[in-house]
Amino acid sequence: MIKYNLKKRILTKKEIIRLLNFFNKINPKLIRNYGSNRYSLKKNQKQMRQAIMIFGSKMNKSSLKELSEINDILDKLKKIIIKLTKTFSTEIDNRIKNCKNPKFEIFGNIVKANKNYKLDPHTDHPSFLISAIIPITDLESSSTCFYEPINDSDLLFKKNFQPIKKFRLHKKFNLKEGDILSWLVDKNSWHGVMGKVRKDRLTINLHYKLHTDYIKNNFEYETIKYPLDKNSALVKSFLYLDE
Ligand SMILES: [Fe+2]
Questions:
Q1: Which segments within the chain are labelled E, that is strand?
Q2: pLDDT in tens, the chain (243 residues)
Q3: Number of domains in the chain
Q4: The CATH number of the domain where 204 resides is what?
């Protein structure tokens, strides 16, 4: 069962408006195509998500300079993520029990999903420990959902993105701007977006994860796995995180 936490209105209306303005006027050079699509995209289909990185170990100077305008909001988000590590501490400890001297980082993006974007059930990369989403625009046409596999088969774990017909809906969220939905990332954390996005959708996607350098130094990507049972094959479908 997926373990999650929902908090209402952690960002104020004023902060939401500032984030919207920030995204709309930022230097286009800082906007890049955003993860996961490469695994679910059909040939010749264009990237449907763009993002501005707001947290991560690979931030460059010009990004940091532009981001200084919303530093107070970023500080607030950082504190929220740190608090969540306490909420999920038992489960995180279990996930990383075989990691020696693990190092962590917060990774985050403001993400724009274009009209018609679809996101099939997936679990997120095994280096992620906590994932969270905060809507900046109304998500009315595209609810974030948690799913449960109908059959807990090995086949399911060979690939991350899976057709929706293999799942039953566990919970559907009608998140409002400024709410935060967070969850523990593990082999049970199947989630996605129900329905096609009918209008552009802006969210903050936050992750608490094992540090990229720690992973590079300690793992072959194939060996990072969820609570260390049967699904090692899962990570092969996303060997290279598009970060
Ligand atoms: Fe995800």
A1: 4-7, 32-33, 49-55, 104-113, 119-122, 128-135, 143-149, 167-173, 180-184, 191-194, 201-210
A2: 899 999 999 999 999 999 999 999 998 888 888 765 444 555 445 567 889 999 998 888 889 999 999 999 999 999 999 999 999 999 888 888 778 888 999 999 999 988 778 788 988 888 899 999 999 998 777 789 999 999 877 667 767 788 899 999 999 999 999 999 999 998 889 999 887 777 788 999 999 998 888 887 877 666 665 543 334 434 443 333 333
A3: 1
A4: 2.60.120.620
Distance 57 CA to ligand 1 centre (A): 20
Å from CA of 99 to ligand 1 middle: 23
Positive or negative, the CA dihedral 78, 130, 211, 201 is negative
Distance between Cα 131 and ligand 1 center (Å):
7
Task: Please give the distance, rounded to the nearest whole angstrom, from the Cα atom of residue 192 to the centre of ligand 1.
Answer: 6
Give bridge partners of residue 183 from the DSSP assignment: 4, 131
Whole domain around residue 221: which residue ranges? 4-239
Q: 240 CA to middle of ligand 1, Å?
A: 15
Residues lining ion ligand 1 (Cβ < 5 A) are: 124
